[in-house]
Write a structure and sequence with these properties.
The protein is globular and about 40 Å long. Helices cover about 0% and strands about 50% of the residues. By secondary structure, it is mostly beta strands. The strands form two sheets. Strands 2, 4, 5, 6, 9, 10 and 11 form a seven-stranded mixed beta sheet that branches. The relative contact order is 0.32.
Length: about 120
């Protein structure tokens, strides 16, 4: 069982930066591939970024590539999402998710655990 708690959201202006954190409780954090998703009002939840167990491998949605960076600190049981050059269209609730992985590849497919989300609002 893994519990995920996101933090770091807020209201910023276009062009600003923000770093989200996701703290995981439970054992064996390093055995989980992690990801960030987001959901804007009236839209479906969409993939943002993912990272493998060790942090070696990452993947990004085209819409955030070059602006966002996912990372993790397995000693702190935490995964991060550094968001730079924010745009109004990045406004959404951001969710952290975890998937048990037997290999150190980027997690793809169904995630087993989800956080409660943190709101990010970017004003123009």
């Amino acid at each position: 069982q893994v519990q995920l708690v996101e933090s770091g959201g807020g209201l910023v202006q276009a062009g600003d930066s923000l770093r989200l954190s996701c703290a995981a409780s439970g054992r064996s954090f390093s055995m989980y591939g992690m990801a960030w998703f987001r959901q804007a009002p009236g839209r479906e939840r969409e993939f943002v970024a993912a990272i493998s167990r060790s942090g070696t491998n990452t993947a990004y949605a085209d819409s955030v590539k070059g602006r966002f960076a996912i990372s993790r600190d397995n000693a702190k049981n935490t995964v991060y999402l550094q968001m730079n050059s924010l745009k109004p269209e990045d406004t959404a609730v951001y969710y952290c998710a975890a998937m048990w992985k037997y290999t150190d590849s980027v997690p793809r497919g169904s995630y087993e655990y989800w956080g409660q989300g943190t709101q990010v609002t970017v004003s123009s």
